[in-house]
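Below is a filled-in request sheet from our internal design queue. Each sheet records the structural input a requester submitted and the sequence that came back. We keep these sheets so that new team members can see what a complete request looks like end to end.

REQUESTER: design group, bay 2
PRIORITY: normal
MODE: inverse folding
CHAIN LENGTH: 203
BACKBONE (tokenized):
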């Protein structure tokens, strides 16, 4: 996706000459792409939407943003705030209304941009932003609690311990790898290592 964002830039070929910058862009684009896939799947579980449907929609959003984005390397994806709202929408009216809602949201964003309403965001107090983010975190946590149940029973101690260990391993790689080397993004290494470890354990 990051590479596609250069298709609408006049200096694309000049960037190819800068091998160091080009390598950085490729690695960062690969990292973001791999990170957004499980994120999109997690959103689909929260919104009660088929993961395949959500992945297709997310890919279209990433593709459009990469090609027509206003700046190089722009990445776009779903947010938890939208996923939480979509839960009641899909449950009440069905997934058919989800596309219409997204089109309406896009139209409103274009309209706000034309009217230059973005400047009014500065009027929102910092305490309101903190309250919104903290409230959103609580709602997200409550919406994901059911995933810790398997066939009506809470997750057993061993699978829970394995999950926590993988989380700590991921955070450890992200935290300490940059102190050893910055050649490869720590996020990318963490994703690859944990993914291979899970596949190896399952086999």
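RETURNED SEQUENCE:
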């Amino acid at each position: 996706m990051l590479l596609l964002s250069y298709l609408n830039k006049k200096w694309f070929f000049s960037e190819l000459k800068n091998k160091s910058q080009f390598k950085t862009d490729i690695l960062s684009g690969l990292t973001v792409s791999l990170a957004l896939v499980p994120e999109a799947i997690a959103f689909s579980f929260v919104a009660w939407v088929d993961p395949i449907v959500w992945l297709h929609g997310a890919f279209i959003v990433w593709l459009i943003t990469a090609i027509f984005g206003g700046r190089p390397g722009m990445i776009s994806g779903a947010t938890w705030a939208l996923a939480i709202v979509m839960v009641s929408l899909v449950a009440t009216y069905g997934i058919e209304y989800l596309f219409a809602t997204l089109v309406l949201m896009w139209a409103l964003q274009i309209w706000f941009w034309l009217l230059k309403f973005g400047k009014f965001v500065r009027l929102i107090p910092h305490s309101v932003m903190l309250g919104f983010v903290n409230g959103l975190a609580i709602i997200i946590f409550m919406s994901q609690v059911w995933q810790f149940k398997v066939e009506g029973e809470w997750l057993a101690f061993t699978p829970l311990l394995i999950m926590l260990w993988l989380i700590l391993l991921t955070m450890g790689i992200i935290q300490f790898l940059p102190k050893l080397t910055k050649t490869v993004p720590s996020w990318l290494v963490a994703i690859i290592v944990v993914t291979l470890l899970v596949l190896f354990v399952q086999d």
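SHEET NOTES:
- The beta strands are 149-150, 153-154.
- The chain has three domains: 1-122, 124-150, 156-203.
FILED BY: M.R.
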